[in-house]
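Lecture notes, continued. The same structure-token format from the folding unit now serves as the input rather than the output. Read the line below as a description of shape only.
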């Protein structure tokens, strides 16, 4: 059997808060054939919130991928230049300037400069923000179960309180990951059940159902490497292996909104 990570939303222990913004209104198209560090539609368009934030692909995003995947339109810059420009080298996001052919000089009449009118002071816009946490699935569920533990309920309640403090909550994204013990089909199904449990709990805490997006990755994105091949049979009875795979059993949760 496999201890799978609650496919989605996790709770607030060991939380890491990140802030990012990209308010591009033009769709960002990429080649969907390769590995893309952001969530995309079936047409290869990067998915973004109403405030312009790109949704990172949980467990996939790296700075290198953000630089290597090119956009298909305009200057064809790296996709990261439109989504996470503040985290990439400035020179990587500069389009080549077109050659300029100088025009013949023209004599222009002298104009009297108009007085400069002060611009009205605008109220600062709401700051887009993303709050992300990753917690072990063991903190939410008992082994091979989809029912929340008391500790899991406490952590999810704390996360829900933080999400509700956002001035405008756009979406909560929760992605569950599992280890490699047991069949992928079984663990995928278990992760989906756990995601549904987490979503129901957050709804009971006052989060709107249409603001919660859950996804299960099964064992597709492990972080523990291949050393497990030297540790014996791949079963839940192999306690050493169960402990080794603990980092794979995780839940990544992100609340996107504005403060």
């Amino acid at each position: 059997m496999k201890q799978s990570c609650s496919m989605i939303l996790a709770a607030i222990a060991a939380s890491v808060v990140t802030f990012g913004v990209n308010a591009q209104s033009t769709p960002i198209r990429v080649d969907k054939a390769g590995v893309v560090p952001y969530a995309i539609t079936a047409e290869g368009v990067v998915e973004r919130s109403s405030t312009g934030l790109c949704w990172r692909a949980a467990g996939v995003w790296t700075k290198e991928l953000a630089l290597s995947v090119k956009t298909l339109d305009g200057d064809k810059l790296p996709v990261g230049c439109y989504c996470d420009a503040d985290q990439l080298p400035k020179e990587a996001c500069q389009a080549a300037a077109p050659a300029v052919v100088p025009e013949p000089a023209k004599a222009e009449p002298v104009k009297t400069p108009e007085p400069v009118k002060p611009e009205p002071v605008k109220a600062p816009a709401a700051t887009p923000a993303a709050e992300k946490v990753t917690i072990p699935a063991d903190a939410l569920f008992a082994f091979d179960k989809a029912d929340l533990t008391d500790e899991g309920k406490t952590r999810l309640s704390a996360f829900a309180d933080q999400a509700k403090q956002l001035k405008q909550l756009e979406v909560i994204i929760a992605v569950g990951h599992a280890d490699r013990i047991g069949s992928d089909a079984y663990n995928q199904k278990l992760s989906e059940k756990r995601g549904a449990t987490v979503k129901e709990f957050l709804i009971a805490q006052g989060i709107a159902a249409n603001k919660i997006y859950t996804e299960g990755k099964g064992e597709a994105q492990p972080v523990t490497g291949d050393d497990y091949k030297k540790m014996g049979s791949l079963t839940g009875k192999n306690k050493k292996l169960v402990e080794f795979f603990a980092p794979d059993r995780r839940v990544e949760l992100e609340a996107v909104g504005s403060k």
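Point for the exam: Residues 184-204 form the longest helix (21 residues).
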